[in-house]
Amino acid sequence: MDALTTAIAARRDDLIALTQDLIRMPTLNPPGQDYRLICEYLETRLKAAGFTTELIRAHGTPGDSDTYPRWNIVARRDGRSGGDCVHFNSHTDVVEVGNGWTKDPFGGQLADGKIYGRGACDMKGGLAASIIAAEAFIATHPDYHGAIEISGTADEESGGYGGVAYLAEQGYFDPVRVQHVIIPEPLNKDRVCLGHRGGWWAEIETFGEIAHGSMPFLGDCAVRHMGAVLTAFEETLYPAMAARTTDMPVVPEGARSSTMNINSIHGGQPEQPVDYTGLPAHCVPDSCRIVIDRRFLAEEHVDAVRGEVRDLLEGLKRDRHRFDYDLREINVVLPSMTDRNAPVVQTVAAEIERHLGKPAEFVASPGTYDQKHIDRIGKLKNCIAYGPGILELAHKPDEYVGVDDMLDSANVMAGALARILLPQA
Ligand SMILES: [Zn+2]
């Protein structure tokens, strides 16, 4: 065992306790609670390891209020002399608990080498692994060059606007200041995630005319118009999307083409509360709305993604009697792909091979994560996701992170620090 591996192995209990502490802070988003609490915890921890820390509130970003302020922490520890800065970015928020748990979602229970809780896998285990990696590296090689940064950021689960996007706008991810970014999202300890697909979210509304339900011919049914939209999707859009291929190594396999989910559909009268005992009135619906979630590939342009939906709707407007619609864009995220030969990719891949004894797998994520903001706003291209959690457990009941997986990925992260910050390594 080399000195770094020994130093990390010696921190096993510390890593477990740190992960449990992080899980026990219920940083649920929405609403985005306890961000200040977790930032102060990280501040205390990282100051003890010699980091300088800044707590930054993303004032005025979506969801930010005095009740639920969007706090972030950026910690930096400069080495003996100048050189590259390696930045580990983790989001501190977790998604709602949901049903089906057999463990306390905020208990941090340790059983059979696994730590359970909401956010264990996505991504407090990754955050804890990166802290242990940095602390072990600093203790083993106090004379390193360059700098290490660790950030804990808000709101990744709701788009990252009060977290990484805000910090990127403030210059925290300027390539002059930071040269390598590792995001310890749960992509499995033997995989380097190069980036993610794009996303386009929109609401489509079809219109009709209200009338008595016994004489629908006197009105115009917005739900039937929406049915025509869905038929056009089935006949034209879905086959076209399925035929597209990509060079992006997206996992799982099914996400290696374009996809579109229809998140919701609603037409006619609003739904009544479950305890309402009345009967519905008889009306022809004059409005029907759907929300679509279209995920696209690096090879597709967002204007084409928008255009093919609009073309289908325009075709219906031309061909279908009384058809009219509104298309409202909700959000757009462009794809992000880091070059396979980028320094951080090669460094982490080499450390995976050295520590785990097998070549790293290169993947891309089906959904987006904060890399988009580091790429588009920060203009920093040397960025990957690499972390210990198992991707399929994210957002599920009884989410957990394996202690050995965290130790392995901490070794890879610390080894990457050694390769970048120790000239002779
Ligand atoms: Zn995550």
Describe the structure.
The protein contains 10 helices and 16 strands. It has helices at residues 3-9, 12-23, 35-48, 120-140, 164-169, 222-242, 302-319, 343-356, 371-376, 403-421; strands at residues 52-57, 71-78, 81-91, 110-111, 114-116, 145-153, 180-183, 191-196, 198-207, 259-267, 287-296, 325-333, 336-337, 361-365, 383-385, 400-402. It is elongated. The strands form 4 sheets. The protein has a 6-stranded mixed sheet with strand order 1-2-6-3-7-15. It has a 4-stranded antiparallel sheet with strand order 10-11-9-12, covered by helices on one side. The protein binds zinc ion. Zinc ion (ZN) binds at residues 91, 122-123, 156, 185, 369.
SSE map:
Blueprint: H1 3-9, H2 12-23, H3 35-48, E1 52-57, E2 71-78, E3 81-91, E4 110-111, E5 114-116, H4 120-140, E6 145-153, H5 164-169, E7 180-183, E8 191-196, E9 198-207, H6 222-242, E10 259-267, E11 287-296, H7 302-319, E12 325-333, E13 336-337, H8 343-356, E14 361-365, H9 371-376, E15 383-385, E16 400-402, H10 403-421
Parallel strand pairs: 3-6, 3-7, 7-15, 8-14
Antiparallel strand pairs: 1-2, 2-6, 4-5, 5-16, 8-13, 9-11, 9-12, 10-11
* SSE pattern, N- to C-terminal: HHHEEEEEHEHEEEHEEHEEHEHEEH
The biggest sheet amounts to:
6 strands, mixed
Share of β-strand residues: 15-25%
Number of helix segments?
10
- Taken from the alpha-carbon principal axes, the silhouette is elongated
The kinds of small molecule bound in this structure are:
zinc ion
Distance between the termini: 16 Å
Give the spatial strand order of the biggest sheet. 1-2-6-3-7-15
The CATH superfamily label of the largest domain reads Zn peptidases
Under CATH, the topology of the largest domain can be stated as Aminopeptidase
Number of separate domains: 2
Determine Rg (CA atoms, Å).
24 Å
User: Mean pLDDT, as a whole number?
Assistant: 96
The helix content is: 25-40%
Question: Under the CATH scheme, which class of the largest domain?
Answer: Alpha Beta
The secondary structure category is alpha/beta
Can you tell me the CATH architecture of the largest domain?
3-Layer(aba) Sandwich
What is the number of strand segments? 16
Report the uncertain regions. none
